[in-house]
Structure formats: C-alpha cells, structure tokens
Automatic annotation (TrEMBL):
UniProtKB keywords: Carboxypeptidase, Hydrolase, Protease, Signal
Species per Swiss-Prot/TrEMBL record: Salimicrobium halophilum
GO molecular function: carboxypeptidase activity
GO biological process: proteolysis
Domain D-alanyl-D-alanine carboxypeptidase-like core, first and last residues per copy: 108-236
Protein name stated in the entry: D-alanyl-D-alanine carboxypeptidase
Amino acid sequence: MKKWIIPVLVSIAVFLTACSEDTSEQEKEDPEKAAPKETEVSEKEEPDLPASAGDRKVSEDGSMIEVEEPERIDVIVNKQRKLPDGYEPPDLTEPDVPFSFEEFHPKKQMREEAARALEALFEAAEEDGLDLVAASGYRSYERQKTIYENSVAENGEEYANRYSAKPGTSEHQTGLAMDVTSAEMAFRLEQSFIETDEGSWLEENAHRFGFVIRYPEGKTDITGYAYEPWHLRYIGEKLAAEVHEQEETLEEFFGLYPTN
Ligand SMILES: [Zn+2]
C-alpha cells in the first residue's frame, strides 16, 4: 500500500464519525424522530470531560446521574447531575472579601483555590472603582435539603423544583460557587444587577480570574435555571477563558445537554 493512503483513509474515517455524530444529534432534537427514552440514554456518548467513567445513573429512568469525582474543579453539577449524598468539599475556607453580613456563617466559605481566585477578582474590581459584595457561597447538603423541603411544604413540589435545587444538585454544595452583589443592589440577588457597573464588570472580567457566569441569559432550557448574573462559578482560568470566548454554558461546552 502506498504511504499516502493511510492518512487519507484515517481522514475519511474521522470525517464519517463526525458526520454520524451530527446526524444522531439532529435526530435527538427532532421530536418526531425521537427515540424512546431508554434508547436515547444508552446511546448518549459520555464526553471525556468533565464526566467520569464512574458517573452512575441513580434514578430508574436514567435521568439522574451521580458524579463520581465531586472534588474535580471542573465538576458539572446540575438538575441531572448530583453530588453524592452528604458530600462535603475537602478544603473550605473563608475568602478575605467583603460580605453582605458580619457574623460567621458556613456560606461564607469556598474551596481554597476558588477563595484565593475570588480575592484576586475582588481586588481587581476595587482597583476599577467598583464595590462588590459577596453574599452566599458554600451550602451544605443538609442546608439545601432543609431549603428544598421547606419550599415543597410551602409551595408544592412543582414550584419547589422550579425555584430551588434538590439536595445534592446545587452548585453551591461544591464550594466552587459564590453569589455576588453590591451595595447599589441593597445586597439583593436580582437580574437588574447586570444593569449596574458591578454586574457588567463581572460579565466582562470574571473569566480572567477563573470564574464563569454559570446561568447566562436565554439558556434556561440548557442550564435549568433562569438568568443569574450574580452566580459565579469557579472552574479555573484556562477553562473559564475558553468558555467565555465561546459564549457557552458549561453544559454546552462539555457536550452535556440536560433537559428538565
Ligand atoms: Zn448562586
């Protein structure tokens, strides 16, 4: 066989593989052609990142997955990908940044690497004359459980599912998220934050410090959450820069497409 034939054959094989993936993706989105749920799940390809081979289905219909490596900085937690019950991050610490309240509270904490990055972000914002205030970081499994159960009791399950995360599915439990606000917002977490200097600065600059705006506008179908310009997720500088550049959600970036 001539030497040039092998690379050509390899290229053709790669091309065919890419095309067949595209086709299956289109079929999945076409409701008329949609395969039954079990088939869809079993055919879904597991991406290299950030899913792990040990991620396992924990609900009967396969719609809920438990992540195997919750300590990964690039762990993806959402309404379909939960942390192991009772998971606690290993290295929680309180970042040295202004908070919207004085007293100690576990929600002031983040994981070490994220806390240091948040400090750098706050320092840079201050140098630009901005006044960021941290509001809520780490949230334990138990605390999320209480919040969720109270919401179910008060408003019913459908409402609770829409507005609060089930225990194990909140990104705040990873210790890699922080809700950020400002005095101008009277420390509230509202979408109008994006209209303030602090909110727009975050959107432009958070990635330089390894953070992404985790729940962008118009991506509710993908993330499962309404726009939250205040919710920062630490994922490391390299990944954050790539995600910011591509203007994608983490689900899109990693090829995970959960639906509600
Ligand atoms: Zn949040």
